[in-house]
Specification:
The protein is mostly beta strands. It is built from no helices and 17 strands.
């Protein structure tokens, strides 16, 4: 789950911090591993990145990456014609690296600057600059990249066909495919984190309770009884 900005502090990947990392908001990123469908990536304390798994589209070409403070891996729909993914690295200077499948331009982020958070989804990625607006690259045919009007954002998350986020006031915008109600988050308030799945969205409130919307047949939205949930 991604969390909104609650002040400025160092984005650390290790208690000792890697040299040269600048002060930046801790937004949707924390130094945790990321899993695609067939590959995994992780951030080392020195700002380099590790990758393992099947990487036929170049998802694992991270050997020269350095100064990275967070990583993300694009998800992949389960189908006979899928499997290719991409890997994203957010650097301490606010630039972004991406490698892997670029069929929809999801890795074309070379011009992004002053980015403080990234989120990767199916065929796309989102970036959050320090000004609270949102950048998008990749597939947007379902409206999932229609984020230009979002303002004062603190967190982002990508599902397959929809994008969600948390504003600094704790409310949530959403864009993209809403066929199962996965974008019905207009009434959510007091959020501290949010996460988009394939056909559903889950949000965490400041009081430790959870909200969910979207596909209910799988039981993935049955979170009303949850309490005392906290961020790591």
């Amino acid at each position: 789950m991604s969390r909104p900005f609650r002040g400025r502090h160092r984005v650390a990947s290790h208690p000792s911090d890697a040299p040269g990392q600048k002060d930046a908001p801790s937004l949707a990123n924390s130094p945790v591993p990321a899993a695609g469908r067939r590959h995994s990536v992780a951030l080392r304390w020195d700002g380099t990145v590790l990758a393992v798994g099947r990487a036929t589209a170049g998802e694992g070409r991270i050997e020269r990456w350095e100064g990275v403070v967070a990583v993300a891996a694009g998800n992949v729909r389960t189908a006979s014609n899928t499997g290719r993914s991409h890997t994203v690295g957010l650097r301490s200077d606010g630039t972004v690296w991406a490698t892997g499948w670029n069929g929809d331009g999801q890795c074309e982020v070379g011009g992004w600057r002053d980015v403080t958070a990234v989120a990767a989804g199916w065929r796309r990625m989102l970036g959050l600059p320090a000004n609270g607006r949102v950048l998008a690259a990749g597939r947007g045919s379902e409206g999932q990249c229609d984020v230009q009007s979002w303002r004062e954002m603190g967190a982002l998350s990508c599902g397959d066909w929809h994008s969600v986020g948390v504003r600094s006031d704790g409310s949530a915008p959403a864009s993209g495919n809403n066929r199962r109600g996965q974008c019905d988050v207009e009434g959510w308030r007091d959020l501290v984190a949010i996460s988009a799945g394939w056909l559903h969205t889950v949000g965490l409130r400041a009081d430790g309770r959870a909200e969910a919307t979207g596909e209910r047949a799988t039981g993935a939205c049955e979170v009303r009884a949850w309490s005392g949930v906290q961020l790591p």
